[in-house]
Amino acid sequence: xxxxxxxxxxxxxxxxxxxxxxxxxxxxxxxPPTVLMDDQALAHFLTAAVAEYRxxxxxxxxxxxxxxxxxxxxxxxxxxxxxxxxxxxxGRNARTxxxxxxxxxxxxxxxxxxxxxENEHRGWWMDSRDVLRASREADRLGLDLxxxxxxxxxxxxxxxxxxxxxxxxxxPTPMDVHLFGRTGWPVNVICYLERRGGAxxxxxxxxxxxxxxxxxxxxxxxxxxxxxxxxPLEA
Length: 235
Prior knowledge:
Layout: H1 20-25, E1 34-37, H2 39-53, E2 65-73, E3 82-89, H3 99-113, H4 128-140, E4 144-153, H5 155-158, H6 174-183, E5 187-196, E6 199-207, E7 222-227
């Protein structure tokens, strides 16, 4: 079917009364959100992640997980939404003790994502009491509970031979997509951590929960992620 054209023969719509000035005044879709993260909050998480990484073995893929506390600024037609992460809050893993967690892993996660998730060291379910404590701390500080951050290690080096072909990154795994959708938190940061030559390196990415779709198979939209840069010259 041919493209409809205006009187001038172009594929653009006819200009509204007022010409180009009126066109520029029309509303446009806001840009994707941006996540700003304080360097001290990231350093706090990385310290814990490196400590946990040192304990990882092929049999114990220990996770590192924390909540993100900060502020949110809604999008306007002039500027994108902004999430500012100012603190991280750690808690206990209730993966094997919370009845809801045990049920979720037994009935949904293991059947859908594989027997590897039967390992009690694999996967994270923050204790609801610690979530409440973090939420109250955020309220006291005038902050919001924005979401979560967790570590992906270089499992293709650390894991058992049967899993050496599975290279993780700062991108969400199918399991991550499932959990991001289940929690519904607006910001989900993944920190990929690897060790080479005795030194640690990391990469970060921020993701929104997957949009709801009838087939239940939607990827997580990515956010722009910016880490605050501190320097002696900072005002």
